[in-house]
Structure formats: structure tokens, C-alpha cells
Amino acid sequence: MVKRVVSGMRPTGSLHLGHYFGVIKNWLELQKTDDCFFFVADWHALSTKYEDKLNLNKLSIDLVKTWIACGIEPEKSTIFIQSDIKEHSELYLILNMITPVSWLERNPSYKDLMEQPEFKDKNMAGFLTYPVLQTADIIMYDAEIVPIGEDQKPHIELAREIVRRFHHLFETDILKEPQSLLTEISKLSGLDGRKMSKSYNNSIYLDDDTETIWQKIRSAKTDTNRIKKTDKGDPEVCSVWEYQKIFSDEETQNDIYSQCKAGSIGCMQCKKICSQNIDKFISPIREKKNSLTDEYILEVLEKSKQKASKIAKEKMEKINKLIKG
Ligand code: TRP
Ligand code: SF4
Questions:
Q1: 250-262 and 267-291 are packed helices; what angle lies between their axes, rounded to 10 degrees?
Q2: Residues 6+ positions from 103 with CB-CB distance below 8 Å
Q3: In the prediction, which pLDDT does 88 show?
Q4: pTM above the 0.70 mark?
């Protein structure tokens, strides 16, 4: 049975390895077998930093380029921009009418951000109702599966609750309750050992060049008890090892593990190998991305917009009939 898959990303700048292993990898797997809709959540991007000039169009095109460079195929998957399908805003409005504020206030990612003193967009209505727009994105296309990063899990839970409430209030069952799908290494650590995140400045980006990757790995945190090459090390406390486990082949991994423990490999040598293997992974993505033109991306978007728009129009017709009689 082919399943409907829907997922989105905000256009906030370059994607890093954490995005790749947290979300894109899932997308690539699903694309092989299922009916996937991947979209740029440009309206969601407005919930923060809306007062800066965001260049949303440019960022959106760049994001789609990165997806295609990673292997998302426009012939297989439907790739579109959220704000191109105005029905998302209509459904968002309707869902806002039936969603209790208390549900939104207890959302963990909302609470987390509210506690950060430097986060200044927290008083905006759109920030509180962010997951309602996300719910609209998902149920518009009857998504069964929503591949996401761990942090988005509560939003999918909320979407399910909103669907149930809608069904109850309007005595219907026309919507689908979505399910979230997480990847295994969705918490790829950053260069400092914390979660890889743009805001921590600890990320390796999918468009970093060879030299940048090396400079980043060179200064990455290792086993801090190791000072000389002959000091016995512990890979388990080293962030470089996290990457070796993903990017190096098994033989290299085994060699490094035992040599680190025995104090017979220097961290610089280990890092050289690591950075070369990361570059081997990133360079085809980087090159493919550079070869894609804006015109090509706009063409792709125009085609899939028509497909998404048709589904969204039909869905809204049904919903409006139900509500207005
Ligand atoms: N909130 C998601 C994020 O920040 C992006 C998003 C918007 C999304 N709408 C969605 C993800 C629908 C999955 C499904 O990553
Ligand atoms: Fe980390 Fe490699 Fe150094 Fe061991 S040798 S501490 S795995 S960088």
C-alpha cells in the first residue's frame, strides 16, 4: 500500500548534516515507495525574525536546490512552496477556531522557547498558533506519515488531537490522523558535542567546501584527557568519533578505535581521515547543487504547484460544505 507522506522545512538558510540525517535521509527512503509531498514552509519562517528582510523567495529556491541535490526527485515527489497554496491559510483559520489555547500553551517546544529570555517574538499570536498551521499543512493532503526531527513530535501529537476534535465537533471522519516518523540518528551531535544546531555554531553544512570542513573538524572537541599522541584515548567521549562512525568504513573505524585506545594514533591524523570522509559524502551534494539553475527550480515548482493545488481545493470544498452546510 502506497502511503501519503507530507513534510516541510522552514527556509532559514543552509542545511547541515543534522538535517540530512534527521530528516532528509527519511525523505529519501520514503520517496522510493510512497507518495511524498515535500514543501517549503515559508509562512512558518515568518513566525520568527519577521521584521528582518528574510529574502524568503531566494531562501526557498535555495532550499529546494539542496533537496534535489540530496536526491529528492521531482519526478517522484511533489515539491512545493507553502504560500503558493493559499488553501493552507484558509484551513489554518478554520482550525484556529476549534483549537483550545491551552493545548497550544502546553506544547513543549512553545514552552521551551518562551523560557529563553533572548527570544523576542514570543508575544505574537502566530507564534502560539504555529502548530495549527502545521496541522493544516498535514491534513490538507491526508498525510498518513510525517517524517520529522525529534523536536517536532509534539506538533504531530497536537495535529492528531485537532483532527479528533474536528471529527467530534462536526460528526465526521473526513480527515486523517497523521503519524510521525523519526530517523535513527536524528540527534547528530555538533562539533562541540552538543546537538548540531545553527544557533550553537557547531554545524557542518551541506554546502561547506573541503577547506571549511577541514577547519571545522580540526578544531572539533576530542577526548580532552588526551594531550600527547601516546596518551590513551576514549573515542566514546570524542565528537570526532561520532562522525567516524557515520562517515568512515568499518575497517577504518576498527583501526581508529583500537589505535585511539592504545595511544598509537594522533588526533590530527584521525581528524584528517574524518574530514576527508565527510568531504567525500558532501562533495557530490555540493556539486549537484551548484549545477541546478533557478529557472529549473521554478519550473519544477510550477508543475507540482498545480498538483498540490488541485488536492487542496478539493479538500477545502469538502470542509467548507461540512461547516457551512
Ligand atoms: N515546523 C517544521 C519545522 O520547523 C516545519 C513544518 C511546517 C512541517 N509544516 C510542517 C513539518 C508539516 C512537517 C509537516 O521543522
Ligand atoms: Fe577522538 Fe580520534 Fe582523537 Fe580518538 S584519536 S580522541 S577518536 S580524534
A1: 150
A2: 158, 161, 162
A3: 98
A4: yes
pLDDT in tens, 256-302: 999 999 999 999 999 999 999 999 999 999 999 999 999 999 999 99
Contacts of 88 (CB under 8 A, 6+ apart): 43, 82, 133, 136, 137, 140, 312
For the stretch 49-106, pLDDT in tens is 776 667 899 999 999 999 999 999 999 999 999 999 999 999 999 999 999 999 999 9
| Ligand 2 lined by 220 (C-beta under 6 Å) | no
> Which residue type does 112 have?
D
Pocket test for ligand 2, best of 221, 229, 256 (most atoms within 8 A of CB): 256
Q: In this predicted structure, what is the pLDDT of residue 159?
A: 98
pLDDT at 262: 95
Measure CA of the first residue to CA of the last residue in the chain; give whole Å: 34
C-alpha cell at 104: 497550544
In the predicted model, is pLDDT for residue 116 greater than 90?
no
Assign 16 to helix, strand or coil.
strand
- 180 and 22 in contact (C-beta within 8 Å)? no
Helices 87-98 and 153-170 pack at an angle, to 10 degrees, of: 70
Q: Which residues line ligand 1 (CB under 6 A)?
A: 6-10, 41, 44, 134, 137-138, 146, 148, 152
- Tell me the H-state helices in 143-231: 153-170, 210-218
The CA distance from 54 to 31, in Å, is: 30
13's CB contacts (< 8 A; 6+ apart) are 59, 198
Residue 123 pLDDT grade (very low, low, confident, very high; cuts 50, 70, 90): confident
Closest-lying ligand 1 atom to the alpha carbon of residue 147: 13
Q: Do residues 313 and 87 make contact, with C-beta atoms less than 8 angstroms apart?
A: yes
CB 189 within 8 Å of CB 195: yes
Of the chain, the percentage scoring pLDDT greater than 70 comes to 98
The whole-angstrom separation of Cα 222 and Cα 95 is 49
> What is the per-residue pLDDT for 185?
57
